[in-house]
Amino acid sequence: MMDLSLFTAPDVAPWLFLALCFASFATAFIGVVTGAAGGLILLAILANILKPEALVPVHTVVQLGQGVTRSIIMWRYVMKPTVLPFVAGGLIGALAGAKIFVTLPIGVLQLILALFILFVTWAPRMGRIGAVQGRFAVLGFAATFLGVFVSATGTLIAPFIAAAAPDRRNHAATLGALMSFTHTFKIMAFAAVGVAIGAYAPLMISMIITGAFGNWLGEKALDRMPEAKFRLIFQVFLTALALRLLWMALARLGWL
Fold it and tell me: Which of 75, 160, 170, 216 could form a disulfide with 127 if both were Cys (CB 3.0 to 4.6 A apart)?
């Protein structure tokens, strides 16, 4: 008889524990195949289960695990020149903190992000403005700075990676690598303010392991997928996510 006591976390029944592990597998696979969306879908699932104070930290740790395993599996495809500028910008973003940012209402922030994502997704030249190093330094700052509050910021940087990536595998691998650094900096920020999520360790470890299998299967699917099909799927998924964000923003601002 299997000991179900191993599959526990605060307010998470064993069957729900296993369901979240499957969700991590599925969203990791989706994240590789679509070039976006996986982290945001997982965040939406966790938001219906975890306590608000644990949501972003737990999601961050799981996404870090998924990003690291994807980077290991697909390391040969990571666009190396983007990494150091992104890391430098991310460190500054982590140090900048929330004081300037929190003055904006959440609805306004969501509206700005939604319109920005739609614009960059459907105007590919916007994703190529400026030198690669400068562009990704700014992205590192923005993704880390905003990520403390909205967690899933892969949708913000994905259009820029798509514009710079010559191949769908470069896109998926680089997104995983860069978001790994973002999540690392966020975890450091949470640790600095004393956020404790040790009770969720069994859940996070299990979700990271199943997410690794999702990454592996996603790479296999990506190898078989035509480049044009990947680009179309990426644009459709990112557009759908941006429209959802736009709807939430308008509802929060009372414009619907």
Answer: 160
Closest CA to 46 of 27, 30, 32, 71: 27
Indicate whether this model's pTM tops 0.85. no
**Contact between residue 227 and residue 168 where contact means Cβ atoms under 8 Å apart:** yes
Q: Is-contact 178 88, C-beta < 8 A?
A: no
Burial 158-194 (b: 16+ CB within 10 A, else e): bbbbbbbbeebbbbbbbbbbbbbbbbbbbbebbeeee
Task: Please return the burial class of 144, using the count of CB atoms within 10 Å of its CB with bins 0-12, 13-18 and 19+.
Answer: buried
- Look at the alpha carbons of 43, 177, 79, 110 in this order and tell me if their dihedral is positive or negative: positive
Structural domain boundaries of the chain? 14-252
Q: What is the pLDDT of residues 198-243, one digit of tens each?
A: 888 899 999 999 999 999 999 999 989 898 888 888 888 888 877 8
